[in-house]
Amino acid sequence: MADPSDELAAAPAVARSLHLVFTDAGAFLREYQQNLVKGGAFVASDESFEPRELVDVRVEAPFADAKLDLAAEVVHCGPAGVAVQFLDPAPDLRARFASVLQCAETLREAAAAAGVATEVSSPQPRDLLAGTEEWLTGGDLEALSLDEEVAVAASAVADPDPNERTFRDRADRAPTRVPVRVKGPTGNSLRGRTRDLSKSGVLLSIDGEELPIGREVELELVHPATSEVLAVTGRVMRHLRGDGVVPAVAVAIHAGAQREALERFVDEVRRLDDEQQRAGIRGPLEELGAVGLLQMFAALARRGTLTVTSGVEEGVVSFSDGQLVMAQVGSVAGVKALARIFGWRDGFFEFRATIDAEPGAVDPTPMEASILEALRLLDEANRQAGPELAPAARFLVHHDMLETTQGSPDTTEAAVLELAAAGFTLRRILDVIPESDVSIRVAIARLLERGLLSAR
Question: Among 9, 111, 170, 321, who pairs with 116 as Cys (CB 3.0-4.6 Å)?
Answer without folding.
Answer: 111
